[in-house]
Amino acid sequence: MKWKYVWGWFPLLAIAFINGTIRQIGYQELLGELNAHQVSTAIGMILFAFYFLWIDQKWKPVSVNETMKIGFLWVILTIIFEFGMGVGMGRPWEIMVHDYNLAAGRVWVVILAWVAIGPSVVFWWRKKRE
Questions:
Q1: Burial level of 90, CB count in 10 A (0-12/13-18/19+)?
Q2: Vertex 82 angle, CA 104 and 103, to 5°
Q3: Minimal CA–CA distance to 84: which of 13, 28, 6?
Q4: How far apart are CA 35 and CA 89, in angstroms?
Q5: Spans of the chain below 70 pLDDT
Q6: Rounded Cα gap, residues 117 and 75, in angstroms
Q7: CB 35 within 8 A of CB 79
């Protein structure tokens, strides 16, 4: 795995923080917490898609295997960061896993799935167009 893909994870973190901040100060009060979480998830997926496109154009991964490794790496880094921050802040596990509860309308896991497959989807799309 190339170190640039580890470093390439940090902009995803920045995008997520900006998206979450806009949700908190922009529309969460209007929509309510759950609806704002769901809207923010959709916006995050779109923003991440643009980032995946940029990464694909800039670094040109050479295979689906490579893009699958990139996506897996980014998901692992995201989960480690999320739970590491939660533990560091003293948050209970019940609260930290709350966003993984699809039955309660929490769709965070969709973001993780998109991060896992997004680089491969973009790679496939580029190869199809070439």
A1: exposed
A2: 10
A3: 13
A4: 25
A5: 1
A6: 10
A7: no
Give the global pTM. 0.92
Instruction: Provide the CB-side half-sphere exposure for 28 (13 A, CA).
Output: 12
CA distance 12 to 64: 20
- The token pair at 80 is 């480690």
Containing H/E element for 8?
none
What is d(CA 74, CA 10) in angstroms, rounded to the nearest whole number? 9
Model pLDDT, residue 20: 96
Query: Which of 55-60's residues contact partners 24+ apart within 8 Å by CB, and which partners?
Result: 55/8, 55/119, 55/122, 56/119, 56/122, 56/123, 56/126, 57/126, 59/4, 59/5, 59/8
Mind listing the pLDDT tens digit for each residue in 38-64? Answer: 999 999 999 999 999 999 999 999 999
Residue with tokens 């995803």: 12
